[in-house]
């Protein structure tokens, strides 16, 4: 609808129509094939000769459609525009369709202005945006999507939260004495207790929680991002014990072994710096640096 001379290419993926999830209408075809037929139908209704192509890409969704030419002369644009409007309304929910009928669609005022040839300018009284004419209530996404996975939070803020939560878990358990034994070996490293995310949140400052509330996943996402220190399982937070982690596979190809060795110890060990008992692993076994001199 942007221009009579426009062309299009589309690679259908997720099953959505104009206003939400696409609802299947028959069971004789696969869901993917039925959705492809729907997308092709949209092209036909819009007056295109629709061509189907299969892309050479490593994906299960690789069928594409191309519209390079129209099936009608330029003089019939107003008629096709009316056809498109009816098609859109027939594929929307009852509530939205009711709203659309109430707002109405004035073909005489808008169809000519919105389907101009490329390079021509619509009259001043026909510059209303397409969103308000074609689909009342349609709200497009912002041009720039905000990153809200806690990755853009200030490093100082993240470090403060990590330290607060770790101290909370460590102080929740009684300190183990040097006489504690497990399996005959001395085990004095304090792993702390596990607490639910709710219990952890109750002990954090309100300003911290307020800042995390604007992030997707909030506290849980921040703790999972810091997987060197924490393990979040079934809504409970634990301090990670690296002694229980599986050692790297010795069956890796030589090239991959060399690459992993080259990336070894690129970050400082949080436990070596902050944990009262230090790191649970000796320096040669820990994947993180015990001091700046070990950094690569």
Automatic annotation (TrEMBL):
GO terms for molecular function: tRNA(Ser) (uridine(44)-2'-O-)-methyltransferase activity; zinc ion binding. Residues 263-293 form the C3H1-type domain. A zinc finger (C3H1-type) spans 263-293. Its EC number is 2.1.1.211. The keyword Transferase applies. It is found in: Cytoplasm. It is an enzyme of class 2 (transferase). Keywords: Cytoplasm, Metal-binding, Methyltransferase, S-adenosyl-L-methionine, Transferase, tRNA processing, Zinc, Zinc-finger. GO terms for biological process: tRNA methylation. The keyword Signal does not apply. It catalyses: uridine(44) in tRNA(Ser) + S-adenosyl-L-methionine = 2'-O-methyluridine(44) in tRNA(Ser) + S-adenosyl-L-homocysteine + H(+). Its main location: cytoplasm. GO terms for cellular component: cytoplasm. Belongs to the TRM44 family. Adenosyl-L-methionine (AdoMet)-dependent tRNA (uracil-O(2)-)-methyltransferase. This is tRNA (uracil-O(2)-)-methyltransferase. It comes from Emberiza fucata. The gene is Trmt44.
């Amino acid at each position: 609808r942007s221009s009579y001379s426009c062309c299009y290419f589309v690679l259908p993926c997720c099953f959505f129509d104009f206003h939400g999830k696409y609802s299947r209408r028959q069971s004789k075809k696969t869901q993917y094939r039925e959705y492809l037929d729907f997308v092709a139908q949209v092209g036909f209704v819009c007056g295109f000769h629709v061509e189907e192509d299969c892309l050479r890409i490593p994906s299960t969704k690789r069928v594409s459609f191309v519209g390079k030419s129209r099936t009608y002369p330029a003089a019939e644009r107003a008629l096709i525009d009316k056809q498109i409007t009816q098609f859109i309304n027939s594929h929307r929910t009852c509530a939205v369709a009711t709203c659309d009928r109430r707002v109405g669609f004035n073909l005489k005022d808008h169809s000519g202005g919105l389907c101009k040839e490329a390079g021509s300018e619509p009259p001043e009284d026909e510059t209303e945006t397409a969103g308000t004419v074609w689909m009342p209530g349609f709200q497009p996404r912002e041009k720039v999507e905000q990153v809200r996975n806690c990755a853009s939070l200030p490093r100082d803020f993240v470090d403060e939260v990590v330290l607060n939560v770790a101290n909370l878990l460590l102080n929740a358990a009684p300190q183990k004495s040097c006489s504690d034994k497990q399996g005959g070996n001395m085990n004095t490293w304090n792993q702390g207790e596990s607490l639910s995310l709710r219990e952890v949140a109750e002990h954090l400052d309100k300003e911290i929680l307020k800042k995390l509330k604007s992030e997707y996943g909030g506290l849980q996402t921040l703790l999972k991002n810091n997987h060197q220190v924490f393990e979040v399982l079934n809504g409970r937070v634990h301090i990670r014990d690296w002694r229980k982690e599986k050692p790297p596979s010795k069956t890796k190809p030589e090239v991959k072994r060399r690459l992993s060795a080259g990336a070894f110890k690129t970050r400082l060990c949080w436990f070596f710096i902050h944990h009262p008992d230090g790191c649970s692993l000796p320096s040669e076994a820990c994947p993180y640096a015990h001091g700046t001199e070990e950094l690569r």
